[in-house]
Backbone:
């Protein structure tokens, strides 16, 4: 049985057709972009979405095992473990925030993958690794990291340049107050008479900071001096 569609166009003032055409199925090409299913990439998900989906795929016992392994996994030099107490009674969204806060975007993905493999969740690890290989970024959260070592290395590596060139020091101190700096430390750093002096005082405190604190400083530097950070990271 042949299938076809006949179309005709008429003028509004006449019933006589002005143009006729017969269409067969093979004459019509479907726009690939109009399909309901997408093959391959283009899922619209960020790496943050993939990380969260991965954590949500763990059952209660598996999530507990994940958190336990996360606190004793061997990390790259310059990174600290998330304190065990911070992970107690945490749900996937909270775990994701802790991962990004402590390790930054890229290393958070790597750490998650290593933990999954260590607890025999290799399918989830491979799925996450595949998403990462497609170059999908995290839409929010920690930094993507300076070239050659992440935000922690950035804060340490560019100490002199940041001391000399950061101008919005008071704004940064206001953001760090309460979460990174105590009230006494905040007042002490602000007592500097110039911006470089304030930055030197701030750097005197940096050696005692953990990864999360350096991450927060990096974030505030990006928020207030984006062009400077980009310039240094390109070096």
Residues:
């Amino acid at each position: 049985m042949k299938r076809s569609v006949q179309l005709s166009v008429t003028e509004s003032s006449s019933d006589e057709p002005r143009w006729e055409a017969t269409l067969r199925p093979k004459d019509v090409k479907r726009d690939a972009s109009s399909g309901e299913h997408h093959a391959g990439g283009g899922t619209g998900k960020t790496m943050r979405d993939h990380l969260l989906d991965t954590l949500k795929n763990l059952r209660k016992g598996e999530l507990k095992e994940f958190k336990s392994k996360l606190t004793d996994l061997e990390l790259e030099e310059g990174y600290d473990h998330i304190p065990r107490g911070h992970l107690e009674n945490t749900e996937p969204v909270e775990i994701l925030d802790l991962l990004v806060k402590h390790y930054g975007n890229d290393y958070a993905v790597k750490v998650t993958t290593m933990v999954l493999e260590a607890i025999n969740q290799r399918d989830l690890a491979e799925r996450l690794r595949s998403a990462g290989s497609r170059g999908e970024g995290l839409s929010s959260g920690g930094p993507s990291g300076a070239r050659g070592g992440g935000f922690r290395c950035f804060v340490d590596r560019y100490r002199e340049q940041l001391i000399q060139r950061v101008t919005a020091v008071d704004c940064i101190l206001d953001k760090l107050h309460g979460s990174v700096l105590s009230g006494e430390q905040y007042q002490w750093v602000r007592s500097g008479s110039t911006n470089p002096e304030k930055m030197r005082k701030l750097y005197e405190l940096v050696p005692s900071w953990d990864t999360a604190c350096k991450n927060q400083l990096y974030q505030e530097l990006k928020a207030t001096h984006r062009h400077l950070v980009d310039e240094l990271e390109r070096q």
